């Protein structure tokens, strides 16, 4: 057995089902991955392959780690943006880029993954010793799936791939471990939440990874407290629940801004409180209680009055247990809180109703979001956005009800990310409708991978908001993308009349059900108004 075959075996035993990437890498160039029972998926660009691996890790709550491989040199250079995005969004992947022959690793101008990936990976090693393949791969998977999920990189020099092992290879896969919070911190937090007059719970992506959805709901209903989520955490709490405030971002629901502004205690669970244009705008005033798996997030950007370190589900369950006996079965304020949420929500929606129902041409992009929100079966969908306006139009107005039905992101806002996420989502959930919403900038970055969707039988639905420019920048773009989709073996349809929009979306859905990827290109207005948080 050589190193290449041994790596394929480790992938299989770590539960990897798909290996995404681009040749030339021995894992693709030989039959080792397929012989190990792993499906190889070749994309048109390395970055998209990383995005697909990213989705696998995020949509399985880290139970499965996405795997990626690519060529030495230009392949690793092309993939670095995808790995950086996965790092920013805390996605568990293991990347196995090929390297130059061991003797040439540090010879200028060779691209050294070991050096170049260190700032955007949780762990980064070069496999120089063939006999260390098992322990090296186990460290990578253990690092990716334990603690805060993030990419692990193992660069394998080309000549090392083909080196025969001297000893019989046996592999013990990594294990996922969880740790709970200090009981004393739980007690203090419970006291603060019980004493608060207007507490707000802010749930992040850590709730998804911990599968803490039921415990979050139980805590909210016990405290009779409203729940907001981060964009990454969107769908951790059902947005049709009376206590839901929606997701915080650059563009967010009015009720969220209202309640955060008036909160006296803000309890963040499974979140980082990172200061970003695409996160929660924290006002001065509320005491912050911060619960996170990663202690380096505590007091990083927002200073907390109290903090807990531990798995989100274990923390939520511990708090629910601690509150038993401290809180009456019915505190008598749930109805009032829900009524206040609904009142503010209705006022906010009334302001936006003209855009959401607009009959103007070109079509208002908010009308597209409204049509999607009304047509899609929320129990059978996974939807994501791309960077910029597609994110800002979609996030406040597309209501989600099921955990992991929305892939939210935005910390590094890489254009073209949504397509790979959606293709990865469809592999994880072949029974669901998987949608990406993108604009002119994003489609120009990664649209050729629509051919990957067609070739690999991954029937996704792409909604292209086309206003022939990138956001509000004076950068004119052109193209007839429905025709491009048809040329890439997908279904393509262009829509210019708002009265035809709903039917076009439904035709796109029907095509995906028949097994064909579909692109609905909607000619939209140059909309610039966003539902921005105002905490002044």
TrEMBL record:
Its cofactor is thiamine diphosphate. One of its GO terms (biological process) is sulfur compound biosynthetic process. Residues 1-105 form the Thiamine pyrophosphate enzyme N-terminal TPP-binding domain. One of its GO terms (cellular component) is acetolactate synthase complex. Residues 186-319 form the Thiamine pyrophosphate enzyme central domain. Its EC number is 3.7.1.22. It is an enzyme of class 3 (hydrolase). Keywords: Hydrolase, Thiamine pyrophosphate. Residues 386-522 form the Thiamine pyrophosphate enzyme TPP-binding domain. One of its GO terms (molecular function) is flavin adenine dinucleotide binding. NCBIfam families: PRK06154.1 (NF004807). Belongs to the TPP enzyme family. This is 3D-(3,5/4)-trihydroxycyclohexane-1,2-dione hydrolase. It comes from Halalkalicoccus paucihalophilus.
């Amino acid at each position: 057995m050589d190193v290449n075959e041994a790596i394929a075996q480790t992938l299989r035993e770590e539960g990897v089902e798909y290996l995404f990437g681009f040749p030339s890498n021995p894992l693709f160039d030989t039959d080792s991955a397929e012989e190990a029972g792993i499906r190889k998926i070749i994309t048109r660009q390395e970055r998209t392959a990383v995005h697909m691996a990213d989705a696998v890790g995020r949509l399985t709550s880290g139970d499965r780690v996405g795997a990626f491989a690519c060529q030495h040199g230009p392949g690793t250079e092309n993939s670095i943006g995808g790995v950086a995005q996965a790092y920013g969004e805390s996605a568990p992947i293991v990347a196995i880029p090929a390297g130059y022959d061991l003797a040439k690793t540090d010879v200028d101008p060779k691209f050294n993954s070991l050096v170049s990936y260190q700032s955007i990976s949780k762990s980064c090693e070069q496999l120089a010793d063939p006999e260390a393949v098992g322990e090296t791969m186990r460290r990578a998977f253990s690092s990716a799936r334990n603690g805060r999920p993030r990419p692990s990189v193992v660069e394998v020099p080309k000549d090392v791939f083909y080196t025969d092992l001297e000893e019989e290879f046996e592999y013990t896969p990594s294990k996922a471990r969880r740790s709970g919070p200090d009981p004393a911190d739980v007690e203090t937090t419970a006291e603060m939440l019980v004493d608060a007059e207007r507490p707000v719970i802010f749930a992040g992506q850590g709730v998804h990874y911990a599968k803490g959805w039921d415990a979050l709901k139980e805590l909210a209903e016990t405290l009779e407290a409203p729940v907001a989520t981060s964009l990454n955490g969107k769908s951790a709490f059902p947005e049709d629940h009376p206590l839901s405030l929606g997701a915080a971002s650059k563009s967010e629901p009015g009720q969220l801004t209202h309640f955060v502004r008036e909160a006296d205690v803000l309890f963040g669970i499974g979140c980082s409180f990172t200061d970003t244009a695409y996160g929660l705008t924290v006002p001065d005033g509320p005491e912050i209680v911060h619960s996170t798996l990663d202690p380096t997030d505590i007091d990083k950007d927002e200073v907390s009055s109290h903090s807990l370190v531990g798995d989100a589900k274990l923390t939520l369950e511990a708090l629910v247990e601690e509150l038993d006996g401290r809180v009456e079965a019915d505190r008598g304020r749930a109805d009032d809180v829900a009524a206040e949420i609904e009142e503010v929500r209705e006022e906010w929606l009334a302001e936006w109703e003209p855009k959401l129902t607009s009959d103007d041409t070109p079509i208002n992009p908010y009308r597209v979001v409204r049509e999607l929100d009304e047509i899609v079966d929320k129990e059978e969908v996974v939807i994501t956005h791309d960077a910029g306006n597609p994110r800002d139009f979609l996030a406040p107005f597309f209501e989600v009800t099921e955990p992991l039905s929305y892939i939210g992101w935005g910390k590094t806002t890489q254009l073209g990310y949504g397509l790979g996420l959606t293709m990865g989502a469809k592999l994880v959930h072949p029974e669901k409708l998987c949608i990406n919403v993108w604009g002119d900038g994003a489609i120009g970055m990664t649209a050729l991978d629509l051919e990957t969707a067609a070739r690999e039988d991954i029937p996704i639905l792409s909604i292209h908001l086309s206003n022939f420019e990138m956001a509000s920048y004076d950068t004119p773009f052109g193209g007839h993308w429905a025709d491009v989709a048809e040329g890439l073996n997908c279904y393509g349809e262009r829509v210019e009349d708002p009265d035809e929009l709903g039917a076009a979306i439904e035709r796109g859905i029907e095509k995906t059900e028949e097994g064909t990827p579909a692109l609905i290109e909607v000619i939209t207005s140059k909309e610039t108004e966003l539902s921005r948080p105002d905490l002044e």
